[in-house]
Amino acid sequence: MVQVRVLGVARDVVGQHLILLKPLTEEPGVGRVLPIWIGPQEATSILMAVEGVRPPRPLAHDLMKSLLAASDARVERVEVTRIEDGTFYAEVAVRTPAGGKVLDARPSDAVALACRVDAPIWVADDVLEEAGIPDEAEAEPGEEQRVEEFKRFLDEVEPEDFEG
Hints:
This protein is an alpha+beta fold. The chain has one domain: Bifunctional nuclease domain, CATH 3.10.690.10. 34% of the residues lie in helices and 35% in strands. The protein has an eight-stranded mixed sheet. The model is unreliable at 137-141 (pLDDT under 50).
């Protein structure tokens, strides 16, 4: 497992939303970035949490945070555990008064919750190896242009682009 941070929330060239996860120990332009495609509501939720924006009414992930607090529980960590047939799987490790629990989750929900409760996010090594893309400095011939176009897109995207 490698600990990651949310590098950004964006849309790909066909308009699908995704989050980019980057290992904490890697500098920009080095190593790999893990793109995970997500829905527009989850993209908005993650973006708001990363930017510290409070919605006028609680979103589903804000409700999850409130339910955990009301139950005297806390998120210990979030893990993207595997990828099967292009689908990512995640788990949320929660500490409750009754002990530890591990809950199955979609990566988008797990990351949105982790961003709200400041919990660490981890990715299995084999998931990063299989689905990660080279960061710009390590781009293979032919990939460099695609990575550059994607980075330009990230520079131009605005939070309002994710409003539903």
